[in-house]
Amino acid sequence: MNRRQQSGFTLIEIAIVLVIIGLLLGGILKGQELITSARVRNMADQGNGVQAAYYGFVDRFRNLPGDWQLGPAQQAIPGVTSGGNGNGRIDGGEWVEPPVVWEHLQRAGFIGGFFQATGAPPVLDTDAPRNAFNGFIMLSHSANYQGLPGQPPTVRLNLNLGQNVPVGVIRELDVKVDDGRPMTGAFRSAPSVAALPPGAPIAEPNCISAGGGGGGGGIAPEWNIVGDSQNCAGVLLY
Length: 238
Known about the structure:
Blueprint: H1 11-61, H2 70-76, H3 97-107, E1 138-142, E2 156-160, H4 167-177, E3 187-189, E4 234-237
Antiparallel strand pairs: 1-2, 2-4, 3-4
């Protein structure tokens, strides 16, 4: 009499498969975590690099990159094709001086790449540097950053690190360089409405959770991790 042999996996074989799957998932998640951490470090280093380049330029030339008038800038920096109005600030209300910043810094040897000011919002790699998520960054004197209710932002030098940044990454970056909150400290969220100049990097409204403010018993807004926005933008105040 022939007995039909039963086919299938033994408990040991199933356990081995589950262990392998667990190792693979763990490796994938760990790899994603390492990628995220690398991007956070990249953005932090980029902010520090721009800050060092800016102050190095000012120390060498006693003028602001982007604001320096064309004639004197051409006499001091070979290859410069654009300049500003020389009023002592990088005017952030229009696309005139912010693009010139990158040309001045690059031509003077403070940053790498090749940049050519166009007087328009950046669309090409030659217009402005990009962040780790392919968003263009912008250095200017402006009030294009968020403040607590009753504490409106004032015009000051700031570096917009560009949009397209996931909210989890932007919060980790804020924790790394500042206080971890989007409306206080030296690292803020970009505004979620059209800023000046038109086309300046902005953040989606759900990058920040609703809150009652920072005073009078209210709850200060936080980075909205649950909302999982993939298009946030942080601003580093100098």
